[in-house]
Amino acid sequence: MTWSEMEPLLEQACWDTLYMVGWSALIAVVGGLPLGVLLVLTDRGGVLQNVVVNKVLGQIVNIARSMPFIILMVALISFTRAIVGTTIGPEAAIVPLAIGAIPFYARLVETSVREVDGGLVEAVQSMGGSTWTVVRKVLLPESLPALISSATTTVVALIGYSAMAGTVGAGGLGDLAVRYGYMRFETELMWITVAILALVISVIQFAGDLAARGLSHRGRSSVAPRLRLLRGGAPRAGKPAPAPEPRTAPAELESAEPTKVL
Amino acid sequence: MITTTDLTKVYRSRGREVTALDGVDLHVREGEVYGVVGQSGAGKSTLIRCVNLLERPTSGTVTVAGQDLTALAGRGQGAGSALRRARSRIGMVFQHFNLLSSRTVRDNVELPLEILGVSGKERTRKALELLELVGLGDKAKAYPAQLSGGQKQRVGIARALAGDPKVLLSDEATSALDPETTRSILQLLRDLNEQLGLTVLLITHEMDVVKRICDSAALMRDGRIVESGKVTELLATPGSELAQELFPVGGVPSGEDRTVVDLTFQGEAATKPVISQLSRTYNIDISILGAAMDTVGGHQVGRMRIELPGRFEENVVPIGFLREQGLQVDVAAIADGPRANPTPLLKEGAK
């Protein structure tokens, strides 16, 4: 295969991946952020303590989180059809990608928001702040660097998931590597795909780390360890932790390793 | 200004009940600095957090500036906003400052004003004015992480004052600070109390804080107020535990047949050479077992434990002389013999 043959394929695949990951990441953030915040607020000792809601939400998140993505994609076919009108192509992949990523991001948000010192919440309450004020002025701004790190992790995980989108004919870089590199023994094309993926993930990770660090005013203490974990984690395809407590955060981060894509 | 009546707080967790407050009646007058002292776990924190309803009391009422807050604390949306408005008129300062790390010093002070819905320009003006007041006019653009502990607490105080409160609650505000900084923060609180007529309710485990700035004080133990009143009056109360805590005078008598007397000097009496007069007049040898002198609320106050030779019966006349000099005299351990510890001492905790 010559470069001129490969080039349009690669270009198309890049756009497909970008399209799928971009939209699903956006939806994941929009959906996962409130869900994660709600998980913290309704927890025992939270501002809106409500054990029933918390347990139900937590259970939903757990089930969605532990579902292998490829099964989720197949299971959601009829739902996808109802939403986007088709079960084939990048649009069809966005739906299961987003649905898989919402609980993933929600758990990361939960962990990040839980890190915010309860004293700050109390301080704002003592000023007469409502729950909404607490969320808007304390929980979100104070955890912003961690929320951005989490979003980075989610995007990287989504790139991994999107490799499976080929199953529904959505294309993308992962699909290209499987179809040409694996099935047609176009080793050269596969390696180029791998290189592109590695490059894309590095850039995303770098940008995410940079943004998180730039927004942190706490000195080096709070965000830095998290970043080191992201970068230095051993490439293992970790199983998603079933019920991630704040302490199991590293396990969750591992599951987002780029290895899955390959 | 702040009144709690029969305030009770019971924590229930996993079937166990812990009574943190057990019928607390507190009365803080307008314009005074009121200190609540006690060991860890005595219920001080719960008490101060009940005053602005951060903790919901199990029973009893809290009235601040004539408004019954417990009545506002009912369920429902309307009640919530009324309580929030009331809270915005009560400033609160915390042990660990609780400043938002993502905001600059100025933005931290503006936060309560944002909650009150004050416009942007007015917020900035007020915040800068308050920072000037607490002596941090030049740190407006810094982030809390760049400040020292004392500076952070000054920001905390400026923030607490932003809503023009009549009442300031201080939850161990100086406990995380070194002695030098503690003094300057206490001085600031005292100044604010005098300049703005601010009523201050503070809880602390440091007796020094009470000595330095409190007009009145209460001692808490096991969720109850054991003793309360004006500091000067407490010092004049025979057998007062708070007085003993504020001016701990230890010392064990040197042998049998001794009379141990605790003296408290206040005002005029503190400057008179009472001991040497006593010694000369009655020709007796006096040993000083322990003594403490300090300034409380601008007055010279001292306590001293002295030992007179002979039993109490033999010392009635000298003791009468001491009383005549305007001293408060507590004769310790008449019946129990000299070896017993005359006054009940608090265990550790308050230092």
From TrEMBL, chain A:
Instruction: Please give the biological process terms from Gene Ontology that the record holds.
Output: D-methionine transmembrane transport
Q: Which residues lie within the region annotated Disordered?
A: 230-262
Q: Where in the cell is it found?
A: Cell membrane
Which InterPro entries does this chain map to?
AA_ABC_Transporter_Permease, MetI-like, MetI-like_sf
> What's the domain of life for this entry?
Bacteria
Membrane topology value: Multi-pass membrane protein
TM spans, by residue? 20-42, 63-82, 88-106, 146-169, 189-212
**GO CC, alphabetical:** plasma membrane
List the biased-composition ranges (Low complexity).
230-240
Give one Pfam hit by family name.
Answer: BPD_transp_1
**Location (main, coarse):** membrane
Q: Where is the ABC transmembrane type-1 domain?
A: 14-212
Q: Which UniProt keyword terms apply here?
A: Cell membrane, Membrane, Transmembrane, Transmembrane helix, Transport
Q: Which family does it belong to?
A: Belongs to the binding-protein-dependent transport system permease family. CysTW subfamily.
Q: How is this protein named in the record?
A: ABC transporter permease
Automatic annotation (TrEMBL), chain B:
GO BP annotation list: amino acid transport
**A GO term, aspect molecular function:** ATP binding
Task: Name the Gene3D superfamilies for this protein.
Answer: 3.30.70.260, P-loop containing nucleotide triphosphate hydrolases
Q: Name one Pfam family in it.
A: ABC_tran
Location of the ABC transporter domain: 2-247
| Swiss-Prot/TrEMBL keywords | Amino-acid transport, ATP-binding, Cell membrane, Membrane, Nucleotide-binding, Translocase, Transport
Q: Which GO terms describe its cellular component?
A: plasma membrane
Q: What InterPro entries does the record point to?
A: AAA+_ATPase, ABC_transporter-like_ATP-bd, ABC_transporter-like_CS, ACT-like_dom_sf, MetN_ABC, MetN_ABC_transporter-like, NIL_domain, P-loop_NTPase
Q: Does the record bear Zinc in its keywords?
A: no
- Key word Transmembrane present in the record? no
Q: Subunit comment for this entry?
A: Homodimer. Forms a membrane-associated complex with FtsX.
Q: Which family does it belong to?
A: Belongs to the ABC transporter superfamily.
Purpose of the protein:
Part of the ABC transporter FtsEX involved in cellular division. Has ATPase activity.
Q: What is this protein called?
A: ATP-binding cassette domain-containing protein
**Species name for this entry?**
Streptomyces malaysiensis subsp. samsunensis
